[in-house]
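Hi Y.,

Following your request, here is the sequence exactly as I used it, all 570 residues.
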Amino acid sequence: MLQSLTIENIAVIRHARLEDIPSGFVVMTGETGAGKSIVIDAINAVLGERTSRDLIRTGADSARVTALFTETSVASLLESLDLPVAEDGDLILSRAISLSGKNSCRVNGVPVTVATLRQLGGALVNIHGQHDSQALLDPSRHVGFIDAMAENAGLRGEYREAYLALRALQKEQASLQMDENEKARRLDMLRHQINELEQAEIVPGERAALLEKQALIRNSEKILEALQAAGDALAGASTLEGAEEFTGAAALAFDAAGALERAGELYPAARELAGTVRSAAYELDECAAALRGLLESAAFDPAGAEAVERRLDVYYRLSRRYGQGEAEMLAFLEKARAEEASITQSDERILALDMEIEAKKAIVIGLAKALSKSRREAAEGFSRSVKDELLDLDMPNVRFETRSEKIPLTEDGGERMEFLISANPGEDPRPLARIASGGELSRVMLGIKAVLAAKDPVGTLIFDEIDAGVSGRAAGKIGRKLRRVAGGRQVVCVTHLAQIAALAECHLLIEKQTDGGATETRIRRLNHDERAEELARIMGGEEITAAQRAAAREMLGVDDPPLKEAMSIS
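Below is the corresponding structure, written out as tokens. Let me know if you'd prefer a different format.
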């Protein structure tokens, strides 16, 4: 049961808090545009339904809705979701929406996803609006009502799982069943691709190494000239044929070290420098030797260059067909091998699938028959009960039936079910979409909800203007129906009808106020006198007369059901 609701910065609501919302029949009323739909939007948001940052109040950075539920029966669901369970059964849901579009959802203070919030919300509250009445116009939705009556959730889930598994097997079999010519053409192509890739002997990283080697080969002349020049500078050489040789840096360093050593015999300060220069001379000599080794190993073989170019050409050709990198080429190879194996083994797999499909089909047909039997049995009682409810909702000549038609198996089973109605004597029942008015649809939906209420474990039902298109005596009967549905649970109804509002055990007023140029919507619980004034406003509009106030007080003061019914008739 919804115990309290806090709304912050949702549309025109800056801050609104409802506390101690009772069980039983609760109504919300207010002028058109006062914000009743915004309250429903806020409740939908905290239940995890789809929402938008456009809901955030102008000038605010974020919006938040918090709801406290008491006397809940979702402990097992909380445990399955690994969420804390309060000892008293209380449950706090909250959701914050920011201008960036991010959501922050919590259950009993623990962060959760919007999907988790929606899963919990569905077990706590059912919201029925005018769009639900429109769902009655879609026959494909009718079988869901019958399944709810039959409590077929488990059976329907089992059937759907088996049906989808059967369809997956059939799809696999269809993909394998190609004609022999097509199979032969595909195998030829796959084997050519596999052979080409296998012969290439692709090695991860080889292409990069070859490109590096290619760059060295193409710049070999420049590299050799630079190495030779460095070697000459260190070791000394003749730059031109027939010219005198020159002394290299290493030899000159040794000469400098010898000269410093001689000076050091007479001038001690030169001894340390002599040692440093000699060490440098040895290092230069080692560098000269290393350069000679580089020159010897840097001989570039023209045949080797041709081999590099040929190998790179192989990679270029393969990359145009099978992927840019070695990893993509090898992945293509594995995929081609797998497809080849699949085709060559397809005959055996098709035979195996035949047996699997027949076995799964038998299971699906058996579940479909069980589902159909359950639906037929439930449909009879459902139609009878809905008719009784409609008779009680001021449709005295109504006939309500559920027509079942066999169809090929689908995810929903093997039958199409559709509700038929006749509201007038002498007329045969026909589809709802063809004859039902808006007011009749509202009453049919309420009748269905009344029938299914006993099957619904959810503790709070919210009806958003389900009385659309209804007035007079029918409105009073809808009010009494809602009050009976509220027995043992909480029913919240947004209404524009005084006949319904007068029957509530709690009356909430949604009103828009302007303060300092800013418009806000506020929610407050009405006392007895305030309720009378609100009922008079609903009945009278802008100008409220003394007679309307007296009638409103009389509606609230009468407890005798027959007398109240007489008042609603008048």
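The chain has 21 helices and 15 strands.

Thanks again,
Q.
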